Amino acid sequence: MNEATKRLTLSALLVGVMLTLGYVESLLPIPGVPGVKLGLSNSVLMLALYWMGPRAACLLMVAKVLLSGLLFGGVTGMLYAFAGGALSLAVMALLVCVAKGFSPVGVGIAGAVSHNVGQVLVAVWVLGTSQLLYYMAVLVLAGVATGAATGTVAALLLKRKR
Amino acid sequence: MKKRDLWIIGCALALAAALFLCAKLLRAPVRAAWPATLAGVSVEMDDRVRAAGGAKLWRSLDSRRGDAPSTLAEAGIAEAESYAVVRLGDYFFVLPLTEAMDGATVTVRRADPEAVNVLALGRNRFNMLKADCPDGLCLTEGEVTLDNRETRPLQSMLICLPHALLAQMVGPDELLELLAYAEAMGETT
Fold first, then answer.
1. How do B125-131 and B143-145 pair as beta strands?
2. Cβ neighbours of A153 in B, within 8 Å
3. pLDDT more than 90, % of chain A
């Protein structure tokens, strides 16, 4: 198969998986802290980052945010999703492509934490309150746990292929 | 997992600790980025709210007022142990959470984009009863009470992010401080 076709089908497949995981997760909230999700679609984004590089991963992230916003979240939700996704992907791309030597678990944790920080920063801007810092701290801790989980999933999948 | 990953975890924990510390030390006044006007917004309240003294509408100011009220009575606000402050951009209204509020509801409607939030009120408590936002997160945030507002992840706040609506519980002193940075806009009916 031609290389470009391969990339196209792989990208489409990964976006599809990300959308499905994102939707299924929205139906299964983690009790206790509002707004905490496992973020399994980040495992898939990490696969894209490792297999296809930062530019492709960036396009996949934008596609996922746009599509899940239009399908499930509504337009205002897109702003938060994009802020989280962009910051998370930037941090993960730096760790994978520039500062090498971190395992997928570490990259997953950094990605999850920065995703949560990005989203709360937008909320701070929209609501004009710095009183969300406490909530951000809670979400940073939650990100360490969920990021370790999704990073482990990504590590296992990366071992399977290639 | 590699040893270097511990650096990431360490940084995240340090960040969380710093944020906890800042959250405890900082008490900045709240100002929202949007919406700047109340055009198309209506606030509907039931008879219980009216009987309990109604809701006063205020608009946030950039600086402290010279003629800031020195007591809540001077600002025309009924005495209560705690108050709900419901924010819509620069505007907010104040509801005294007295016994008379038990079972009362307040409905905030916005015409464009269409948005509805219903708050259920009670003595020293409130929660989001209904919201037509797509994620419905504010419905999972539970209730804010005088007892749990220090321990909830969102502290004393209920937030509906898609509608940029924020409801917060404040004590009498906090409310007085808040009103020093706001001007009265009259009753909401």
1. antiparallel
2. none
3. 54
Q: Which of A26, A109, A127 sits opposite B12 (nearest CB)?
A: A109
Q: What is the pLDDT of residues B77-93, one digit of tens each?
A: 888 899 999 988 788 88
pLDDT band at B26 (very low <50, low <70, confident <90, very high): low
Question: Which chain B residues contact residue A134 at CB under 8 A?
Answer: 19-20, 23-24, 153-155
What percent helix, strand, coil does chain B show, rounded to 5?
Answer: 20, 35, 45
Q: Cβ atoms within 10 A of the Cβ of B108, count?
A: 23
Residues forming a β-bridge with B159: B166
Cross-chain Cβ contact B30/A128 below 8 Å: yes
Indicate whether this model's pTM tops 0.80: no
Q: Using an 8 Å Cβ cutoff, are A102 and A95 in contact?
A: yes
Q: Name residue, tokens 């608009």.
A: B59
Inter-chain contact A129–B26, Cβ cutoff 8 Å?
no
Q: Please determine, for the modelled complex, whether the ipTM score is greater than 0.85.
A: no
